[in-house]
């Protein structure tokens, strides 16, 4: 359980154009629901120029803030990119899945599992995967250039590690 101080938004978070990152040991997709398993307790955030802010907040707080504010994620669901680090599959299907672009809705946190309802915009979501990172766009915006750049950078890194 989080301390009460962990559940307070970092000062100034609402004033920056922050992107969010959630990491998990694995993910699963079924019937329009994406579940992150073995989710990190912290949701990272970062902002590029001019703020250049970076930090983390408790994932429990991230979910609690979903519906708060004028430009909440509940009012304007965020786009996100799910990027896979490991396959989670064996045999012929053992390759690392391609990144998938989704719209996130209605998060439900239970222990270290976080489930979103999703609309798939691009790519495919495997029924099961290994390690993954979910890059979530900032409040009230379409897919940002920073999110696309992060996705491309991670894709290049994955390609470089495959070639080893």
**How many separate helices?**
2
Report Rg: 15 Å
In total, how many domains does the architecture comprise? 1
**What structural class is derived from the secondary structure elements?**
alpha+beta
SSE arrangement:
Elements: E1 19-24, E2 26-30, E3 33-37, E4 42-46, E5 54-58, H1 59-64, E6 79-84, E7 100-110, E8 113-122, E9 128-129, E10 132-136, H2 145-162
Antiparallel strand pairs: 1-4, 1-10, 2-3, 2-9, 3-8, 4-5, 6-7, 6-10, 7-8
Describe it:
This protein is of the alpha+beta class and 164 residues long. The protein has one domain (16-162). It contains 2 helices and 10 strands. It has helices at 59-64, 145-162; strands at 19-24, 26-30, 33-37, 42-46, 54-58, 79-84, 100-110, 113-122, 128-129, 132-136. The protein has a 10-stranded antiparallel beta sheet with strand order 5-4-1-10-6-7-8-3-2-9. Strand 2 (26-30) and strand 3 (33-37) form a beta hairpin. 27% of the residues are buried.
Descriptive terms for the model:
10-stranded antiparallel β-sheet; about 160 residues; 2 helices
Question: Could you give a short description of this structure?
Answer:
With 164 residues, this protein is of the alpha+beta class.
